[in-house]
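Is adenosine-5'-triphosphate placement plausible here? Inputs below.
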Amino acid sequence: MLKGIRQRAIGSYVFLFSVFMVLTFLRSLGVVDLLTVLLGSFWATVVMAWLTNRRLISPVEQITSVAQEMAGGFLDAEIRVKGEEELDDLAWSINYMARELRKNLTVITEERNRARAILNSMADGVIALDKDGRVILVNPVVESIFNVKEEEWIGNQLIKVIRNHELEQLFIRALNSMQPVLNNELQVLTPEPRLFRVEISPLKGNQEEKMGVVGLLTDVTERRKLERMRSEFVANVSHELRTPLTSINGFVETLLDGAVEDPATAKNFLSIINAEGKRLANLIDDLLKLSRLEDRRSKLNKQPVDLTEVIDNTVKMFAPRAWEKNIELTGELPQEMPPVPGDQGFLSQVMINLVDNAIKYTLPGGKVKIKVNFSRDEVTVSVADTGIGIPPESLPRVFERFYRVDKARSREMGGTGLGLSISKHIVEAHGGKIWATSDEAGSIFSFSLPLQE
Ligand SMILES: Nc1ncnc2c1ncn2[C@@H]1O[C@H](COP(=O)(O)OP(=O)(O)OP(=O)(O)O)[C@@H](O)[C@H]1O
Ligand SMILES: [Mg+2]
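Reply from A.M.:
I modeled the complex. Tokens:
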């Protein structure tokens, strides 16, 4: 391309030389004087310099300055020159290159934004390291897990940012081996203890060359908690089922071994077997109730419920037992009460569980009192007793499944430790709250229900 320019430059030198030669020749013939030769040569040089500047130097300067702007990232700049044909071609090529770059840059930016959006909306944490172990990418989940901003991560060694030796070792192992590394239960302490499943995969280039590693951090704290609860639940259920069964088997074997011959012993054993059988059936009933409530399979059949009626019925139901145990069972109910939106059957179950406990855990001569209070938004029912009370450390646990303050004693009374947990489920399914307080004077179990749906 530059051939033409070079030829033109040589041409101009030849032209200047020719002008000089012609003038010198004319001078030797005496046609012109020395001043004319000098002036002629001078003007010829000036004209040539002007032409070179206009057609060559100034367009090149312009091209250089726009190219510098482009290099600085301003790809919208465009070269507009009029000069030598070759320079026009050069300008056109640079403009074309800038246009192509602009197009590619748009595609790359869009792709980067898409990848960012995916990373930002992920529920799992992502950390990518380059082959030297420096952080090249983290997503917002990772920032919040470790409470460290992205700027502090990028370009730094992992350990400098998070100080979790175990996690760092996993990344180092993956980087060194370039093989996937998995840890199902990594504990992260900052800012609060949580369990993560960490899966690190190698990043390889097109030629299988080592580029780094990328780690995925999945929070499994809740899942592990549920798994633990489930296995505890299975262990508890098996235990609770086995206890009455062992007792039934024991008495049946004794009967078979000859006790059946003695009618008094046989009757005693059979009544124990009967009671244990009933307990087993109750337990299975309770378990089914609980599982249906948890499954939300048994939908609440909500209707306006007259709570006074529910409480009256419960008092009537427990009156004989209270009388037998010499316990004063009373209800302090308002004259008028708005209906509560709820499931009558389930709400009766809550009342039965609370009054049953109050009588069960109160010694003869004690008192059990049911009270109702209501405001514009909610109604609160409380069952207070003068019973044995609940130690403060047990109070937060009494609503857990199978939790009993005194296991042996409660089991002796036929309790399975499911009553309060069922009640809690029912009250919460109604959008309400249930709680307990207790001291030496006795315990108060209360629940509140919203009056509006
Ligand atoms: N009014 C109360 N006074 C003292 N302790 C209580 C009272 N109510 C509950 N508790 C304690 O809370 C525990 C759990 O109560 P919950 O009603 O869930 O089970 P339970 O009464 O043992 O068995 P059941 O499943 O038959 O109701 C009881 O074992 C008892 O230790
Ligand atoms: Mg109970």
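Short version: The chain has four domains: 2-105, 122-219, 224-295, 303-450.
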